[in-house]
Amino acid sequence: MLREAAKLSKTETAVMTALADVIDPELGIDMVNLGLIYNVTVVDGHCDIAMTLTTMGCPLGNMLDDAITEAALSVDGVTECDIHLVWEPAWNMGMMTRYAKVALGIHE
Hints:
The protein has 108 residues and is of the alpha+beta class.
């Protein structure tokens, strides 16, 4: 799961902020609030992003990959980006922020 915000570097925090602008077109909520971004690491300008999708067969994977790469590369200090699609831990609705749940009409 994503490291605590206090443990992210300034550049990693900026990448997370940029990723909050990447909207899942099916759900209309950004990837960060959906809980789909598991980890962001930036070392010497190289950004590694571990993420998942809501379903294994998500037809929008390539489009999201392009949008996530573009968002990461928009951050000062990031010169390249690799996305690692992972399936463990499996995504579930409990990983969404309260904002995402309210926006989707999910009440706990």
